Amino acid sequence: IALSGSFSMTCLWCDLHKGLRIEISEQPHTMRQVTNIIIALQKFKQVRSTEFTDHELFNIIIENIVEGAVNLCFSALTSVIHIIYATTGVIQCTVCDGLKKSLVQSQGTPNLLAVTLRGGNSNRSVGINLSTYTTPGCKATNGQPICLKIAQSNLYLACTKESGTSSQPHLILEACTHDHLRKPTTIEENDGMERFLFFRKVTGGSINTFESVKYPHWFISTSKNESMPVDMCVEEDTSRQKVFTLQDQKVI
């Protein structure tokens, strides 16, 4: 049996007579697919036939639970289903929207504001630490995964909904001391930290968009009006600015 690690974001496929191939899938797997893997693993133990009665199949499952092969299967499936985001570096910068408004920290609220800064007020623009991530074995078709942190603080931009509501996603500043973010290494899909991740796409060399990983098709955006909160909006919303430029960039 050939066990290959193809990462084409398609499906998990199993043919008991031709072998076993595991590929990345975004869809939940059925118990029958798991059972097929268990049966395939039996071939490694030189099982003579793959024609099992219901009773024999039950015994195989129970035997593998005892011997740990089921754990091996679920471990393999976990690595297939979960996407792991691994950090690759940090860029420090300031951010302006498409109308040249700078991002400044709002006093007393967990928000950033988009404000046109003039004269000697440019120091009000917050520094942003942009941590870049990669998804090993997967093509970044949605953009570069990133986290956005207020420099010299533990405040991160997070896309979230109010608990227990069906409201639309909002952008907030959230204090976080989680090890994954204090010392960015990896963030796993569905580990509760995806609210801090955004897909960054760059067009024309300098035009950036930031799409929520947790809530696809929702983008960081600003109002066309002055001194309004930075928030989320859907891609089709033309009343808000969804493009940004990074200035004063340096690698840290």
From TrEMBL:
Coiled coil: none annotated. One of its GO terms (biological process) is cellular response to lipopolysaccharide. Pfam families: IL1 (PF00340). InterPro entries: IL-1_CS, IL-1_fam, IL1/FGF. GO terms for molecular function: cytokine activity. One of its GO terms (cellular component) is lysosome. The keyword Cytoplasm applies. Its main location: cytoplasm. It is found in: Cytoplasm, Cytosol; Lysosome; Secreted, Extracellular exosome. Keywords: Cytokine, Cytoplasm, Inflammatory response, Lysosome, Mitogen, Pyrogen, Secreted. SMART domains: IL1 (SM00125). Belongs to the IL-1 family. This is Interleukin-1 beta. It comes from Pygocentrus nattereri. The gene is IL1B.
